[in-house]
Amino acid sequence: MPERAASLPDSLRADVETLWDYHDMHHELRPADVGIGLGSHDLSVATCAADLFKTGLFPLIVFTGANAPTTIERFPRGEAVHYREHAIELGVPASAIIVEPRARNTGENITFTREVLADHGADIRSVVLISRPYQQRRAYATCKKLWPEVEVTCASTPMPLDKYVASIGDVDRVINMLVGDTQRISVYANKGFAIPMSVPAPVQEAYARLVSAGFTQRLI
């Protein structure tokens, strides 16, 4: 495994930027029925959801997520619960937040959120999926497979790659997650978990070089 660096090495920059740009869906946000914050280690998902709520983009937020091995220490009461608390601290009314505390992967995030919203009698025709920047494409493909009738747009905290790496504080972790999510675009489509998405040749080549460089921790 490459030695951990404090910032993105120049030798890797072009390939990492290629994957970073690929996973950003570059959607133009528009009003929706609900914002769905996908649980993870990254609290900026909750910040982004709160910021978008306060602009009036949607009237309701669902935070979805239990725990993964990478989040149990940071969010001991569960990802969605901590997200809710953070959003309330940022000024979102508690009455505008629904917590879905069971999901342990993106497919469950979507499936269980649908169930929770149905239980609340919500008529949902459009959603904004809020995730880590490099999770947008996989979240979109999963949602379109499992909830094809809704209009989906994707959002993340607007942040350039270097600032995001600094906010996480671990270059290797970010690159491994980018590589892992790139692999999952094809693997999950083949397994029927998500709709197929085009993977351009430059993305495939960047992915292969980063795998060869040793960034394999998130491969399946």
UniProtKB/TrEMBL annotation:
<dbReference type="InterPro" id="IPR014729">
    <property type="entry name" value="Rossmann-like_a/b/a_fold"/>
</dbReference>
<dbReference type="InterPro" id="IPR003848">
    <property type="entry name" value="DUF218"/>
</dbReference>
<protein>
    <submittedName>
        <fullName>YdcF family protein</fullName>
    </submittedName>
</protein>
<feature type="domain" description="DUF218">
    <location>
        <begin position="45"/>
        <end position="157"/>
    </location>
</feature>
<dbReference type="Pfam" id="PF02698">
    <property type="entry name" value="DUF218"/>
</dbReference>
<dbReference type="GO" id="GO:0005886">
    <property type="term" value="C:plasma membrane"/>
</dbReference>
<dbReference type="InterPro" id="IPR051599">
    <property type="entry name" value="Cell_Envelope_Assoc"/>
</dbReference>
